[in-house]
Amino acid sequence: MDLRGTYTQAPSTAPQSQRNVVSGLGTEVVALVNNVPITREELANELITRKGRQFLELLINRRIIEQAAAKANVTATDREVEEELTEVIRSLKLKNAAEFESTVLKQRNTTLFEYKEDVLRPAILMRKLAEKRVQVTEEDLRKAFEANYGEKVQCRIILVPKSDGLGVALKIYDKLKGKGIDEFIREASQQPSQLAATGGKIRPINRHSAVPELERAAFSLRDGEMSEIIEVQEGYVILLREKLIPADTGIRFEDVREQLRREVYKRKVEAEIPLLFNELRASAVINDFLNNRFDIKDVPLPGRNYPGALAPSSSAPSSHP
C-alpha cells in the first residue's frame, strides 16, 4: 500500500458537506468523523506516542545510511529495489509479491511498502557502499582455492554450550579420554543439539576456515585422536579427527579463478557491511530527544543557539541514520 495516499484529500464522491469541510483544510485532514476532522498532526502525535520510540531507532539508522550514500554519490533506484524483491521472492519459492506479503510480511506485522523502504533500499545502499571498500587480491583467490579444493579433515565434535559451563565439558572430556571412536560417537549422539543426529559428524574442515581454533586442532591431530577442550564462540568443543581427505588434484586454479573471485567478492562485501555500518553509527552525532539519548559532546550550553535545538513548542527533529 502506498502510504502517500493516506494524506490525500477526501475523494470527490464524498457528500458535499464533507467536501466543504475538507476544501478549506487542504491535506492536513486525514479523516472526518461526523464532519469533525482528524488532522495529520493529531495522527502523528498518536503514532509518536504509541510507536515513536520503536520506530525512531529504525529511522535514525536509515538516515545514517542515506547520508553516507548521498556523500558517496550512491543511489538505490526503484528498479533495483524491485529486482531485489524479485530475488527474495524467488529464493523463498513464492509466486509473487502478493503471496510474499500475505505469507511472510504479515507474520512480521509489516507491509510491502515498509519492507522495500526499511529493509531492501537501505540494504542496497549499504552493499554499494561496502563494495567501494572491498578488493579481491591474488592471495584471497589462492586461499579460496585451497579452502575449496585442498585437503580437508573429517571430524566429529561434541559442543557444550557456554551456559552449561566448562565443568560439564571437563567431565565429558575425562569420560572419553583414552577411549575409542565408538565411545566418542555414542557420547556425541546424546548431546542436546542437532549434532546428536549425526553422532557429532560435521562437514569436513578445510584450510582458512571460519573457526581457526578448530582448523588448527583438526590438522594437528592424528586420525582417531581426540583434542583437548577448545573454547569457541558458541561454547566448548571436544573434537575427534576421523581421517584426512586428500586434495582434489583434478581442478586447476586458472579454470575456477573467476568463480572464486565472485565467491570471495560476495563474501567480503557481506562481511564488510556490518563493519561499515558500525563505523557510520559511531561517527554520527545523534540527538535522540524522544528517548533522551544523545552525544554528550554535542549538548548545547544554556542559551546557545545551534542547528536543531528544541524550542519549547517545537517537535524533535528527525535526525536518524
Keywords:
four-stranded antiparallel β-sheet, 321 residues, disordered C terminus, alpha+beta, disordered N terminus, two-stranded antiparallel sheet
Low-confidence segments, given as residue ranges, are: 1-26, 296-321
CA(first)-CA(last) distance: 24 Å
What global shape is seen? elongated
Helix content: 40-55%
Strand content: 5-15%
Mean pLDDT: 84
Q: DSSP helix count?
A: 10
Strand order in space, largest sheet: 4-3-6-5
What letter string, H or E per element, gives the SSE order? HEEHHHHHEHHEHEEHEE
Which structural category fits the helices and strands?
alpha+beta
Largest sheet: 4 strands, antiparallel
Give a structural overview.
The protein has 321 residues and is an alpha+beta fold. It has ten helices and eight strands. It has helices at residues 16-23, 40-71, 78-91, 97-105, 112-131, 138-149, 166-176, 181-188, 212-220, 253-283; strands spanning 29-33, 36-39, 152-161, 205-206, 226-231, 235-245, 287-288, 293-294. A hairpin with a 2-residue loop joins β1 and β2. α2 runs parallel beside α5, α5 packs across α10 and α6 packs across α10. The protein is elongated. Residues 1-26 and 296-321 have low confidence and may be disordered.
